[in-house]
Amino acid sequence: MFLLLQHSQLIFLAILALTFAGHPVPILKQTQEINEGQYKYSYETDNGIAVQEIGEAGKFSAGNGQWVADDGTHVFYEFTADKDGYRVRGSHVPQIPDYIQRSLDYIRAHPPKEI
What we know:
Helix content: 25-40%
Radius of gyration: 18 Å
Number of helices: 2
Largest sheet: 6 strands, antiparallel
């Protein structure tokens, strides 16, 4: 339930901020389902913001979103949050180069030996 409340609060604050910034943005479509700890929601606004998420309270969540930045750039992200942490990928999120990721994977698979 914590994840659901947290995201609902973020949505409310974003809408509130847009409204008080003098730019009320109509919500074109919104869905929300809650069933025994599992949830799913999505929304789309008039200015091109689209978000969707699914999850199970306290166990995992996954979703994606998109919007158009002030400079006209289309921004997209997707994320997963579970027992292994929060992982996000997106057009605006810096990525670890492949050669660094391979090095990290190798180090993880071959931990240093105790002396």
